[in-house]
Amino acid sequence: MKISVVSKKLWCVHKQLVLLLTPLVFLPLLFTLPEKEGKCLYVVLLMAMYWCTEALPLAVTAMLPVCLFPTLGILPSKIVCPQYFLETNFLFLSGLVMASSIEEWGLHRRIALKVLTIVGVQPAWLILGMMSTSSFLSMWLSNTATTAMMLPIASAILESLYGDLETLKQNCKTTEDSESDIINGQSTVKLHSLPSMPTEKQILSTDGMDGMDQSDLRTAEEIRSESQYQLKVWKGFLICIPYAASIGGTATLTGTAPNLILIGQLKSYFPDCDRINFGSWFAFAFPLMFLFLVLGWIWISFLYGGLNTRLCFKRHDRRAQAEARAKALIEEDYRKLGPINFAERAIAFFFILFAVLLFTRDPKFVTGWSVIFKKGYVSDAVTGVIIVSILFFFPSQKPSLSWWFDPQASNTPYVPLLSWKKAQDSVPWNIIMLLGGGFAMAKACEESGLASWIGGHLQPLAEVPPAAAVMLITAFLACFTEFASNTATIIIFLPVIAELAIHISVNPLYFMIPATIGCSYAFMLPVSTPPNSIAFASGHLMVKDMVKTGFVMNILGILSVSLAMNTWGIAMFDLNTYPEWAQPPNKSAIITDVHLSSVRSFNTTL
To answer: Is 368 left (phi over 0), alpha (psi -120 to 50) or beta?
Structure first.
């Protein structure tokens, strides 16, 4: 049998092989390391391998601690099982329920179209509008849902601007390319059935094309050059949306799963740490998100032809005519939504109330409203659940007193803003299981002593200046998450990073925050994140487009995180000192602040 045939057959069963061989490969760990640490490391590496290769579904792998930790004598089941629904999961669940109500009534589409009518239709401004809208929505919705909603809007605008994509690709070819296509039997003539009733977009595109045909006196080379420019802009539109969605999710605790993993593991490792909550995280991460978004917009606009003199000077040419058609399309789509109804107003009100209450509960830099209640009793999860519970009984139509006295009025039962069926269908329960698996793993690493054991072996890294370590940690995790789930990545590495910080007497937040954010910076490959996959599945992007754009995006992200941590991050979280809450219980109660001279020296250079 040929080697190629054998390799194909092996690839067909590679997941099953990983599933069976991985436990055998890691078996020596049980006999060569200290008993409890070795058993815990065995389970951690087993889960890491299954997560990275997806030999089992991610959620199924996340449930392995329930059976492996008790049977191997690492943790009893009564400690493992509660980790799967901590208060952090309730905060995540409340964010998902709020997002499903926004999607149910189409408020997200209204927001997106309104922003696009404001920013204008020139490519650079449209890219900015797409990125700002995607990032804002991704702060509250999942980045996958945001990308799935925004890409069709972008495609409709692009078709109005530049016409059919296949025609555009054909115009980009040289004469020799076209002749070779004909010789090879690939005719460029396509037959289309006539639609019985053209849509508004088709009417706009047809009118524009007729005008172009009547006055198009350009040479073939000019047409090809203009088509290549338009194709570049098209790619820029498609690639900016998933990137902005990934960036936007870092701004809120509920925006992406790694942020919640950070909160959960902080509460597990450092129960006395109260520095991170919804308000304090937003105050730190939103400026970082804004900075990175602007840098990303400049890079994508520069790379894909959006930055030019047209941003400052108006011209009356074919591009201006196409931009006018696109503007008409956006305004028409927004007009079709009609006036904002009672349900949309109610959802907008509760959405704003949800964000404001979470932000002001205990923002750290001012006194929050949580002081009204007993200290430590009201958390972000309590706030979120209170607000989203109202959605299940608040009416979606404006109540009327006259209905009670009108015998002719219809006696149909009122419809709430959100039904449980809708919420149940839209919540990704697999992610909640994944969060629980991460918390169970973190608990086992702490209780078994594995985290301390690993931290002791990382002592040589103490020689690396903390400011440089921040950049290295962010870069490493941003690269690792290109090939693995960002949630699985942060679950695997966050306990190790926490122990490293403790062993070299650095504030754990100084390493854990950039690690968490870096896990969301997966821009280089289609398989890195679901948003990347959705954009790539459109068929208009190539892997080299994402690698070329994403490589620079990763560098910009690493530099942005380093800047944030060493400027306003230090001021907000007091990162210059080793905190009392990070002291191991066996240490003396006398706390001595350990100043990071290297961090300060780094600040003087900024």
So the answer is: beta
